Recover the amino acids of this structure.
C-alpha cells in the first residue's frame, strides 16, 4: 500500500521529470510493480461467542484478603462492624468485582469494532534498486538506480461503517457487562449472609459457654454438698462419686464449647478479613424479636423483583439473544472504508500530499457450513440460558418458601425450648431441695442437671436457627442489606 502511494505521489509531481528520467520514479515504479505481483492474504476473524459472568465459587465467600495488622488489646466487634469489614475484604466479593473489570474490558474491545481505527507512521527510506534484476531494460536508463532517500509521513483510517454482526456482538457484550455488575451486587448479599451466619454462630457459642459455666457452678455446689454429706455419714460414697462425675462431665463440655468458640471466631475473622492473630470479642447479643411474616405470594413476587442474580440472569439471556441475532446477521453484507493520507517527498520541505480512499462492499456468497454452525452454537447457548433462567425463578421461590417455613418452625422451637429451660430449672431446684432435706439421694439431682444442660443447648440452637432463618429470608428476597430489620423483627 505504501509503495503505491509513493508511486502516485511521484507521478503527480511533474517537476521531477523536467530534466529527464528520474531515478526515484523508476525505483518506486519497480517496487510498486513488484508489490502488485503478490496479492494481500485475506484475514478471517471468527466471532467470539459472548458468555455471562462465571459464578464465583461458594467457598470463596469463606475467605478474604487480609491487609491489616493485628493491634494490641481486644477489639470489640459488632455485627455492623463485621458486615462492613466483610464488604471490604471478603474474597468472594473481590473476585466478583474483578469480573466486572474484565467484562468492562471485553465490552470496550467489542466497541472498537464499530469505531474507526487510525494509525500514523513516519518513514525515512534509503533505496538502491537494480532494474536489470527486475527484468527492466530501457534504452538510455541506467541499470542501477540510487542510492537515494525519501520521507513518507502518513495516517491510515480503517472503519467498518456497517456490520450488523459487530453491532449485535457489541450489544451482547454490553448485556454481559451489566450482568456482571448485577452479579457483583448479588455477591454483596451473599457476603452479608455469610458474615451474619458466622457472627450468629459465635454468639451461639458464647451463649452455650455462659450456660455451661452456670451449670458447672451449680454442679460444684451439688458436689460440695454430696462431699459434706458423705463426710458427715448421712450419704453414701456413691452420691459423692455421682456428683463428681457430673461435675467433671460439665467441665469437659465447657472445654469443648470454648474451643468451638475460638475456632468459629477464626472462621469469622477469615471471612471478614480480620487478622487471625487479632484478639476480639463479640459486642452484640443474640437478638430475638417477633417477626411479622409476610404473605407467601407477596414475598415471592418481591423476591423475583429484587434479586440481583435474577436480574443478572435476565441480562445474560438478552445477551444470548443478541448473540443469536449476530450469527444470523453474519450472512449480511458489510461496508468498510479505508482512507490513507500522507506527505511524501525527498524531504519534508519538498513533500507533496497524497490520498487514497477505498470503499469496500463485502457480500458473503458461500459460507453455509460456517453460518449454520455459528447459528446452532448461538441457539444452543440461548436455549441453555433460558432453561437456567426458568430454573432460577423456581429456585428463588423455593428459597423464599424454605425460609418462611424455617422461621415458623424455629420460632415454635424457641418458644418450646424456652419453656423447657424454665421447667428443667424448676425440676433441678426441687431435686436439690429434696436431696438437701435428705428425702432422696442425688440421682434425681444428676438427672435434672443433664436435663437443664440439654434444655439450654436446645434453646440456644433454636435461637440461632431462628435468626439464621430470618437472614436467609432477607437474602432470598434480595433484601440482605436490610438485615437489621429482619433480625430485630420486621
Amino acid at each position: 500500500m505504501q509503495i503505491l502511494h509513493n508511486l502516485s505521489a511521484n507521478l503527480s509531481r511533474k517537476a521531477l521529470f523536467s530534466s529527464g528520467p528520474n531515478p526515484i520514479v523508476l525505483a518506486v515504479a519497480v517496487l510498486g510493480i513488484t508489490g502488485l505481483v503478490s496479492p494481500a492474504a485475506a484475514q478471517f476473524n471468527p466471532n467470539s461467542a459472548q458468555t455471562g459472568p462465571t459464578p464465583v465459587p461458594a467457598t470463596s465467600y469463606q475467605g478474604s484478603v487480609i491487609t491489616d495488622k493485628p493491634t494490641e488489646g481486644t477489639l470489640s466487634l459488632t455485627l455492623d462492624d463485621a458486615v462492613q469489614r466483610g464488604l471490604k475484604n471478603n474474597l468472594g466479593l473481590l473476585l466478583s468485582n474483578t469480573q466486572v473489570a474484565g467484562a468492562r474490558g471485553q465490552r470496550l474491545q467489542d466497541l472498537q469494532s464499530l469505531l474507526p481505527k487510525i494509525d500514523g507512521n513516519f518513514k525515512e527510506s534509503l533505496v538502491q534498486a537494480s532494474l536489470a534484476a527486475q527484468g527492466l531494460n530501457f534504452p538510455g536508463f541506467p541499470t542501477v538506480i540510487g542510492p537515494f532517500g525519501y520521507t513518507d509521513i502518513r495516517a491510515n483510517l480503517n472503519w467498518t461503517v456497517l456490520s450488523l454482526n459487530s453491532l449485535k456482538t457489541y450489544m451482547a457484550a454490553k448485556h454481559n457487562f451489566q450482568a456482571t455488575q448485577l452479579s457483583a451486587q448479588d455477591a454483596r448479599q451473599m457476603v452479608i449472609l455469610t458474615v451474619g451466619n458466622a457472627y450468629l454462630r459465635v454468639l451461639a457459642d458464647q451463649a452455650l459457654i455462659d450456660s455451661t459455666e452456670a451449670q458447672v457452678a451449680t454442679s460444684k455446689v451439688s458436689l460440695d454438698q454430696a462431699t459434706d454429706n458423705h463426710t458427715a455419714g448421712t450419704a453414701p460414697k456413691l452420691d459423692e462419686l455421682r456428683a463428681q462425675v457430673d461435675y467433671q462431665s460439665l467441665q469437659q463440655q465447657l472445654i469443648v464449647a470454648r474451643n468451638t468458640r475460638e475456632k468459629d471466631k477464626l472462621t469469622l475473622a477469615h471471612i471478614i478479613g480480620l487478622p487471625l492473630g487479632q484478639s476480639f470479642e463479640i459486642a452484640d447479643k443474640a437478638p430475638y424479636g417477633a417477626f411479622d411474616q409476610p404473605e407467601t405470594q407477596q414475598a415471592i413476587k418481591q423476591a423475583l423483583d429484587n434479586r440481583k442474580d435474577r436480574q443478572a440472569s435476565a441480562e445474560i439471556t438478552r445477551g444470548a439473544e443478541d448473540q443469536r441475532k449476530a450469527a444470523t446477521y453474519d450472512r449480511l453484507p458489510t461496508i468498510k472504508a479505508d482512507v490513507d493520507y500522507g506527505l511524501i517527498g525527498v524531504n519534508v520541505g519538498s513533500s507533496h500530499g497524497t490520498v487514497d480512499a477505498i470503499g469496500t462492499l463485502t457480500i458473503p456468497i458461500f459460507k453455509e457450513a460456517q453460518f449454520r454452525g455459528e447459528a446452532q452454537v448461538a441457539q444452543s447457548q440461548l436455549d441453555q440460558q433460558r432453561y437456567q433462567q426458568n430454573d432460577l425463578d423456581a429456585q428463588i421461590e423455593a428459597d423464599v418458601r424454605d425460609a418462611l417455613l424455617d422461621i415458623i418452625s424455629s420460632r415454635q422451637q424457641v418458644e418450646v425450648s424456652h419453656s423447657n429451660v424454665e421447667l428443667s430449672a424448676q425440676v433441678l431446684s426441687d431435686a436439690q431441695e429434696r436431696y438437701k432435706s435428705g428425702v432422696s439421694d442425688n440421682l434425681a439431682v444428676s438427672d435434672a442437671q443433664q436435663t437443664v444442660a440439654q434444655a439450654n443447648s436446645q434453646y440456644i440452637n433454636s435461637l440461632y436457627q431462628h435468626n439464621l432463618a430470618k437472614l436467609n429470608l432477607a437474602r432470598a428476597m434480595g433484601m440482605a442489606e436490610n438485615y437489621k430489620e429482619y433480625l430485630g423483627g420486621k
